[in-house]
Amino acid sequence: MEKNIQADIAIIGGGVGGCSAALAACSLGKKVYMTEEYDWIGGQLTSQAVPPDEHKWIEQFGCTRSYRKFRDQVRSYYHHNYLLSEYGRSAYYLNPGNGGVSRLCAEPRVMHAVLQQMLAPFINSGKLTVHTRCKITKAHTQGNKIQAVSVKHENGETLTVHAAYFLDATECGDVLPLAEVEYVTGAESRQETSEPHALEGPADPYDIQAFTYCFAMDYFEGENHVIDKPKDYEFWRTFQAPFWPNPQLNWVSPDPKTLEPTEETLFPGTDKYPLYVYRRIVDQANFTSGTYPSDISLVNWAQNDYFLGNIYDVPESLVEKHLHQAKQLSFSLLYWLQTEAPRPDGGVGYPGLRLRPDVVGTTDGMAQGPYIRESRRIKAEFTVLEQHVSAAIRDEQGAEEFPDSVGIGCYRIDLHPTMRGHNFLDISSVPFQIPLGSLIPKRVTNLLAACKNIGTTHITNGCYRLHPVEWNIGESAGYTAAFCLNQSMNPSEVRANAEKLKELQALLTANGIELAWPKIGAV
């Protein structure tokens, strides 16, 4: 039997942007419904098991107040619930894993617990309803408006959600095709965007960045935790992409910035970069002796980037195939590390590496969902181009200033290998703004993009897709939808009305969203 629910704002997707959107809309008294595909809300931070990629000023400025609160509460969670060592307690900015990728490398379960704490007051008061393990199956539209969406729980139960506003915060922009919202995928042509790094030939909707199944592991020298040989191991053991310097399972991979073959290693102690430390989420040194028998690291490396096929806008049989093969690649990487990876001492393999399913909340050991770098993107009222943010183009003057700014972000233009065989593109950008126009579809009047599905290009997606930027996008979308309800205006009307746009920006600023950067350099 189909159930119905009524909300002011329906958020489809409970990832980073979905959670921040819910916090914003609920804080303004709106009744919100949020659905999430996996067991855990939090997306990149939790179900995808990716520690936050952040800029170097994150502790002082350059993110929203609520994102800083989230980060502070993660640290507080460790201080209140864990047995920290004197070293850990004395750290002014505790980094539980001391990973190289972030100043806050923490366990996905802790990130999830903190997000639940932040949302709890709204859930318990009835303002927010969250349904996990649900996927959107249908959108009900009339003219240029979405009337309702249907979502299906994995147990087969179907729910139809009616709302005044809808926010697409799904990892792949799943609302867009169902609601017939105009969107783009893949890479634009240079003729279309004039971007220096766009395709010279025609646009290619399947030229999409790799996705990755991350996993957690710890290590015990002298022990044997070797997994069963993966079914596709022999394939991945010998697979070499035409643009790759050697087989995929290898310590040598292209340097993302120079594309020169670069050799890495597993542990510290040599002159090569130790990948175990790269996304380490537990550093034993931060905890009292015996709390953790080993450091724990998350594996999201070049070696387990999957670029043999996309998982949206293709038949379901191909979706299942590519998801399966991507998991097989990650399992194969682990098996290679355990059995064949060359060691600095001249031996091979680290059989003491142990897969940690409990860390990611699954039975097979892979993250609950793949790490999606590139989504469907709305055809927006305004599209951010390379020319707006590239350091090579705008270094002296800073990024393009957008009069409709609803937030800021900062990250290099970082593209991973694509489904069409293009290698890394990693170039410097300047700290940038998030224009409201990039959240607004050209036609549909009551939908906002709330994560990495905003109006960017294949190129600029590379710097707008990271955790604090997605949080800001979602939070601003939540506030904007609530503001529009209060004003009886749609987002496009607000953007076109200088007075109302100023009121919205004042609301954002009052709630801790920075709209502009101080004068700082490129990254």
Topology of this protein?
Blueprint: E1 3-12, H1 16-27, E2 32-35, H2 65-81, H3 86-90, H4 108-125, E3 128-131, E4 134-142, E5 145-153, E6 158-168, H5 175-178, E7 183-184, H6 190-193, E8 211-212, E9 215-219, H7 233-238, E10 252-254, E11 261-265, E12 273-274, H8 275-278, E13 280-282, E14 296-299, E15 305-306, H9 316-339, E16 353-355, H10 357-360, E17 377-378, H11 386-389, H12 391-394, E18 405-409, E19 413-415, E20 425-427, E21 432-435, E22 447-449, H13 461-464, H14 467-487, H15 491-496, H16 498-510
Parallel strand pairs: 1-2, 1-6, 2-3, 6-22, 11-12
Antiparallel strand pairs: 4-5, 5-6, 7-17, 8-15, 9-14, 9-16, 10-11, 13-14, 18-21, 19-20
Account of the protein in words:
By secondary structure, the chain is α/β, with parallel strands linked by helices. Helices cover 29% and strands 19% of the residues. The chain is built from 16 helices and 22 strands. Strands 1, 2, 3, 4, 5, 6 and 22 form a seven-stranded mixed sheet that branches. The chain has a four-stranded antiparallel sheet with strand order 13-14-9-16. Helix 1 runs parallel beside helix 4 and helix 1 packs parallel to helix 14. The protein is globular and about 70 Å long. The mean pLDDT is 97.
Quickly describe the structure.
29% of the residues lie in helices and 19% in strands. The protein contains 16 helices and 22 strands.
